[in-house]
Amino acid sequence: MPVSTAMPNRVIPVLALAALGLVWVLDLGVVLPNRIVAGTGYGLYGATGWAGAFVVTALLLAAGLLATRPVPKRFPVLAVLLTAALMFLPLLLEALATRRLPADSAYARIGIGAGFWSLAFFLALMLTETMHQLKASRHLQLTAALLIILGWWVCARREGLGSLSLLREYNNQADQFTQALSVHLLLSLGAVLISAVLAFILALAMVRRKSWRRPLLGLVSFMQTIPSLALFGLLIAPLAALSEALPVLQALGIRGIGWAPALLALIAYSLLPMVRNTFIALMEVPEAVVDAARGMGMSERQIFFQVKLSLALPVIIEGVRITTIQAIGLTAVAALIGAGGFGTFIFQGLGQAAMDLVLLGALPTVFLALAADAVLSALNVRRAPGD
Amino acid sequence: MMRVWLTPVIWFALLGVLAAFLPAMGSLFSWVQPGTDDLVYSRDSFYLLLQSHAWLVLVSATIGTLVAVSAGIFVTRPWGRDFLPLVSQIASIGQTVPPVAVLALAVPALGFGEKPTLLALALYGLLPILRNTLAGMDGINPGVLEAARGMGMSPAGVLFKVEFPLAGRVILAGIRTSVTINIATAAIGSTIGARTLGDPVIAGLVNGNTAYVLQGAILIGLLALATDSLFEAVERLWARRSLAV
Questions:
Q1: Hey, are the CB atoms on B217 and A231 less than 8 Å from each other?
Q2: Which of B98, B204, B220 sits opposite A230 (nearest CB)?
Q3: Number of domains chain A contains
Q4: Residues 6+ apart with CB under 8 A from B11
Q5: What global pTM score does this model have?
Q6: Could you give the ipTM of this predicted complex?
Q7: Which of residues 234-273 of A touch B (CB under 8 A)?
Q8: What is the pLDDT of residues B46-55, one digit of tens each?
Q9: What are chain B's domains?
């Protein structure tokens, strides 16, 4: 049995106390008269009444206390408790809606307050620590995450949360949302794919020719240093000029603004992590392994595909992971030059001071990045033990 | 010794000269924006924007470094070690979140302007520093620390004379990453009301004035390259010094 089961855990109580303090001090949610105007904030007690306040307080205290007791099975119990708490967290906002939303106004809506976000954040940290103490497998962690997403999805479909301003904003823009999602995925994954192919060729060239290494790595890290807004901006003038000069490009939709400069810049940024990781991975295949393969009578081609590449794959996939996360974030910035995607909502929302439109763009961007991270890390774990 | 500083000095000089003389070079930009006299961004001087941009990055990097290094020290001491797994997970998961999303989310939480930008930059910028501090401090061979203690060094002595010198290069690399990200993110900060070199770019995009966009983009790019070459020089000096010892 691991030592940690017998020792009091200090991390979870500290997190629980912090969450307790924040959830009582900050506003859990806001009642807004309409889309733009600032609303009235309600704390935990004001939003959910004594019943809700009691449940939240008792849950946090119980979790904190349980973690300090040398009870067997306390971490599995905590894992279940915290996952369930996170799943049903949106019900707190539903309580606010039922208690405080004026019934006579069609425009009134519920905004999510800092107290709610803090509670969600600290519960997630407590769950992370619990999973660490449990030495939970990736499967278990993923299951918990999926359960929480399922819980939020079910809550969002309930009648009571129909007045949540984030959902109203989504319902207003459902078509644009789907389009933004597909543009965002197309641009970022397209850039990752193209740069993966390019990077593979460049890395192979660097492995073969020593003299290419320094200049190529220098060039790709130089591009990585240039801030995204600047690179997007710098590409506008040359692409506009090109498109003026060549009607073929114009017909393809390549202009100074839009998806073309965005894709070019995204590829430029993706090259550094891709090239570096692929190059390092191919270089680090031990010479002894290659010799052994040669001794077994493998051809150079077989050695490359069956030995070198398969040994290098985890590091290459790590490069793909870093690149994908980065590309998803940069695609959001590319909305500034008219490329579309979730960034459109962010910058529109900032322009109109409509905070929930900002959330409608920012939260899916974060979610996409986290999902890409989860998927590509899982891919690597599955491959890692010697296959 | 002085040659190390040559590249950053040249970059910064170029940046300063351009910031000063771009307004006088308006006619150069007429090829990207023909048919108008409005060729130079003039709402604020480029100097003022550069200054405010650099100030944002400098302050956020200072706050980020202080917080990240203190947190790194805390979780690598015996009494804070319980928090090490959680903090290192926060550092790595946090870096998955795109910086532009952090910037955007700062607005609903804190409103528009300089302060939300500063906070978002400091918060996001501390993650790479934290991660590298942990990697640097945790990566020190325990035998070395044991030996230092065995020599009768105090805990503070071990920290300042052994751990910091050994982890310093990795921490510095983290600060470099953080500053690079923050120069880029600060530029986007002009969409949430901070005054930065992103202003001309955004104004140019909104008004369809490519000359503005180009002026902002050139200065942002130069600022990033100049700063990066400064870090390069410092890292080189550091490496040389530790070789000499």
A1: yes
A2: B220
A3: 2
A4: B222, B225, B226, B229, B230
A5: 0.90
A6: 0.88
A7: 234, 236-237, 240, 256-257
A8: 999 999 999 9
A9: 43-244 (1.10.3720.10)
